[in-house]
Amino acid sequence: MQARHLVSIDDLSLDEIRELFRFADEFAADPRAHAGLCPGMIVASLFYEPSTRTRLSFESAMLRLGGGVLSAADMKVSSTSKGESLADTVRVVGGGYADAIVLRHSSEGAARLAAEYSPVPVINAGDGAHEHPTQTLCDLYNLHVERGDIKGLDVVLAGDLKYSRTVHSFAYALARFGANLVCVPQPGFEMPEYVLQRLREEFGVEPVRADARRLGSLAAKSDTMYLTPQKPHQLSLFTDARGWEVEHVDAVYMTRPQTERYRSEELSETAYLRLEKQALQADSLRDAVVMHPLPRRDEISEEIDSDPRSIYFKQAARGVPIRMAILGMLLGRLELEAPLAPRVRDVAAVVEGDNPCPNPSCISRTETRHVLPRVAVQRPSRPGQSLRAFCAYCSRELDFGFIGCSTTRHFHRPDSSDLGKMRTDHMVFLADRESAQAQGFSPAGPARSGEPV
Amino acid sequence: MQARHLVSIDDLSLDEIRELFRFADEFAADPRAHAGLCPGMIVASLFYEPSTRTRLSFESAMLRLGGGVLSAADMKVSSTSKGESLADTVRVVGGGYADAIVLRHSSEGAARLAAEYSPVPVINAGDGAHEHPTQTLCDLYNLHVERGDIKGLDVVLAGDLKYSRTVHSFAYALARFGANLVCVPQPGFEMPEYVLQRLREEFGVEPVRADARRLGSLAAKSDTMYLTPQKPHQLSLFTDARGWEVEHVDAVYMTRPQTERYRSEELSETAYLRLEKQALQADSLRDAVVMHPLPRRDEISEEIDSDPRSIYFKQAARGVPIRMAILGMLLGRLELEAPLAPRVRDVAAVVEGDNPCPNPSCISRTETRHVLPRVAVQRPSRPGQSLRAFCAYCSRELDFGFIGCSTTRHFHRPDSSDLGKMRTDHMVFLADRESAQAQGFSPAGPARSGEPV
Amino acid sequence: MQARHLVSIDDLSLDEIRELFRFADEFAADPRAHAGLCPGMIVASLFYEPSTRTRLSFESAMLRLGGGVLSAADMKVSSTSKGESLADTVRVVGGGYADAIVLRHSSEGAARLAAEYSPVPVINAGDGAHEHPTQTLCDLYNLHVERGDIKGLDVVLAGDLKYSRTVHSFAYALARFGANLVCVPQPGFEMPEYVLQRLREEFGVEPVRADARRLGSLAAKSDTMYLTPQKPHQLSLFTDARGWEVEHVDAVYMTRPQTERYRSEELSETAYLRLEKQALQADSLRDAVVMHPLPRRDEISEEIDSDPRSIYFKQAARGVPIRMAILGMLLGRLELEAPLAPRVRDVAAVVEGDNPCPNPSCISRTETRHVLPRVAVQRPSRPGQSLRAFCAYCSRELDFGFIGCSTTRHFHRPDSSDLGKMRTDHMVFLADRESAQAQGFSPAGPARSGEPV
Description:
Shape of chain A: globular
Oligomer: homotrimer
Radius of gyration of chain A: 23 Å
Number of strands of chain A: 18
Distance between the termini of chain A: 42 Å
Strand order of the largest sheet of chain A: 9-7-8-6-5-10-11
Largest interface: A-B, 33 and 30 residues
CATH superfamily of the largest domain in chain A: Aspartate/ornithine carbamoyltransferase
């Protein structure tokens, strides 16, 4: 039987996540009462970049479940020096040393690659700037504990909305659960267009201008935006020229500046947002919980640490029961009843040509052995739409002009209706007409006019 | 309920220490028979500087108690790089990952800071040159096992008595238990005045010259000194012009040169003391046990390793049962009957002005976030004595000229009887008259003569 | 009672190894069913050079046995910086922290030194280029599982046969079990003469030229050689001018280029051997299993990973049950019935002169404290043969001209019959006549002719 992995939060259906929450509730109620769940089982932490907090959180979860832990905090130094591929490493560790692998890696898509080869479950504990699904689960679980049903909650996302992986993943997950987002970006660090696009396309979320008067000083300098999965015509009933009015916030999710991701000049003129006592006095925040994925620097003043609304330390602590639930599920000791998450994209190996992934941090580019480039294809849901393709590892969207068929040797436009009949594993992604012809493809279409259809 | 911590050996009363010894005796008798004591509990080793021996000793103790271990041997690299404060780290780790924290840090006072924030017990496993209470406990425990009652024992402290933290802590603890100290320093590395002063003030220990003829070659080049908590008039019965005669030694505690703490020139001319076969033949050492906190370099010759008096490897091994006792107590699984150690000093936050701690290695200076400077005030026990103040983290004594009151805005001399009425948390420590007046204080006293009283 | 250690594969008799295989079979059948074997026991991994795979394999084995693990992945940094000797470290760790020590060290002979001092069993997890007995056991165990009786098997050793420690150890062990070796070296990386010599002297193995036609492309560029412990007169029945014909191979053991051991020029002209699909089609390999100690680089093509004959990932996985057996035996929880391996060489301390070991990587040269040079003496089995001597740590053969007696002060030739009467612990190994006389020895023999006998 194929092992089940947790590479992306999308690997879990909403119902599965809700079931995991229920297990986590049990674990949190009495963390030391569950050592009978995984005795004799072993989890290996393979950390190719240091992250003590995440590692200890997983290891604590496994110990609480009565299992054992193999800890490799410094894989980069020890293993890569001998030139072993990630694929071989997980085949060895998963082949007999451990019953599950927790993987942290600096390359995007590394966990997906590991999952392809590992005989035992792989849990993604962060792959570069890509995904960190248990962090997202932990954040969602905190909302569940503090607020109950996530659907319809109003959640402020504040700070660096441009570079923070954590906040993007959280935004998608909130939208999936039907929560509304109030974006309060650090000026210059607004939510990027590709995130907004995905929110729009997958969840029907449309941004509207937000009236942030009642958000107080926190939003004083930001262009605040409201993102809701509600239908626009409903929304229009409640908005006027000033935009949707923020009245009551359920949670403020603050993020630190991702200083490792940008040049310091970007932040030189405006100081970073800071959540302090005065900001929490805003009318709309009267019973909002304050969240932060930690570590924080100065973006949350310690003067609010003792405010009962500040839950960021509880939030971190709840990472243990939710990871206990994940481990228990993947190790086959917790039975979930919910159906699996449906697969939205077809994945196929790249049959011809170079690796089409343009991302230099993708594992398909950084790993020199045992990587077969793969694409994930999203077919149009309506006629006239274009087929889109993504790197199956790092999820970066591919940029291409035409699609060739490896058997017919014809090439087509991405919006061609002919693509409906082409098998995913026959697709060749071509930059332009010249490279198509150089690779031996001819234009498709009855007239062979030189213009593919 | 507030967690109990072990930051300093002074956090334990003598009776508590004796009870811990009894538990350690049980653990040592059959180390593998106690795995039922802490199952399901977790200790996190947070080591900001490497110390494999100490770390493994604690982790062994926890495993012997049936508990689990989270091990972070390299906190400096992993955590500090993300700019997280020590306070936040212990709040997260102690908030849900672990049931106790063992902390090793290069800054003095770090464990005290951690204990302020941690929801679970913090055990100081060495904070710079400050304290390492479980090492001291281990040393005392060895005396207890080898000699029974510590009171009245004659213990030679040999080697670097100037820079060795271990030997200072051990000296205070021995004095507290009523043992006598024979100081045999490496020439130039005599016991510092501030240590002698504390021994004198807290335990009434007065140094007398010692006649070291019967100590043999070990003391040949040293100015040997005898420190005893016995009353001086009793002592005088036994001393003459040559000083107290060393007749029978119970233990020799040898220390290595703390080469990391001084310039090599300090030791260039005289070679370091070396305990070898010949030295052990001294009459007074015929049944002295030889102790060393390890690691040793050349200060103990390997030729005496097999001498039954050499117990330094047993000494290290006994670190495990005594740490089992500490863990068992702090995790609430061993009930002690002895009353808690009384608190000698009042601790209060610094209400005005800069951090008064002059120690650049103090955590209050090295940590940039979440540190509130605090002072520990020792009020005079007799009229005419001065009030003294110490950094509450690193215990360094503060140097000040006057004390101001933050409410009356008057300032006083440290020996003023007015201080008896001033609350500790109102005290402002002032360098001199000028800075007092610059900070808005005026002299105290009925005449307002300009001279404070 | 003296602890038993596993420093060399020669520490185990063939019958003991066979018993360990039977225990490993049980463990492999149900790895999680044996947690009752070592509860309350602790193994310490002391790794002075990184080797995550080996470390995790041992730690997994101990966890599967229900025991605890102390992990020190970076001993070099933490311990050596304080100047502690290896001898002291193992006395401390083995004195009370752990019930067994797994040691990885960069110096040859380190595990032998550790075993001299440790109160608990030491397991050699690799000492420089010297030995790695559990790797060899794992390799043998795989043959046992895949092929049953090892005696009489034909095993191809391919690749770098010159620098690979692993392949030398495996070759000795195969010869000891009575298997035949087919050497297929990378050109220029042939099996060294000292290995062939030991195979000849200890096991009566004589190399013959091999006819490798039926080995196919794998052996196309190599001078293939057949090594068999069968009697040469039997062999001659089956060989002709082309040499012994390779007809049916039971296993191919592929090794990676030991690039850390030679200058890159050595491999610049010929590319390294590569085992790929085409090579596996050779007639003689039709049911050979393919083994590799891992990590691999390019010497095994990933296209054969899915071939059922490729067992290298299973091979690695089987390292866990065989290490469970080793740990269980050394911790005294598995009772073996087989007699101990006989000791072939006398070991004695060097009584005079400098350390005779010429190996700069030997622990007797790299360790500055607590090393007493020792020699292992192999006395001639027939008159006229010379006495040979080896460093007792790294096994390097000593080069000497004469042997002096520390009591008679005479010196003798290595083939002198007088040596039969000389005690091993009286032997002094002398480079030449001049140095013998400089050290105060005179020639032996009745005539005192100046020529020793």
